[in-house]
Specification:
By secondary structure, this protein is mainly alpha-helical. The protein is 62% helix and 0% strand. The longest helix is centred in the last third of the chain and has 18 residues. The protein is globular and about 35 Å long.
Length: 76
C-alpha cells in the first residue's frame, strides 16, 4: 500500500494565507511529523516578510527541533 503524503502542511498554509495566524500556530504545535513541518517551511518561505511571518518561522523552527529531538523515556 502506497503511503499518501499528508495534506496537513497545505491546510495550515491555507490558514496562514487566510490571516488566521493563531489557528496556524495552534496546528503547528501539534504537527504530526518532521516531514510535515519541513513541507510547511517550504510553503511559508514563499510569503513576503512581515512580523507575523517572522513569528511563524520561529514557531515552525522550534517545533521542528522538538519533533526531531530524541525522546526521553522513563522506565516504569
Amino acid at each position: 500500500m502506497a503511503r499518501v503524503k499528508s495534506e496537513w502542511a497545505a491546510k495550515v498554509f491555507a490558514l496562514v494565507k487566510g490571516g488566521n495566524v493563531d489557528a496556524a500556530v495552534a496546528q503547528i504545535k501539534v504537527a504530526p511529523t518532521v516531514g510535515d513541518i519541513t513541507r510547511l517551511q517550504g510553503l511559508l518561505s514563499a510569503l513576503p516578510a512581515s512580523p507575523a511571518q517572522r513569528q511563524l518561522d520561529k514557531v515552525v523552527e522550534e517545533e521542528r527541533a522538538l519533533l526531531a529531538a530524541p525522546r526521553l523515556h522513563r522506565s516504569p
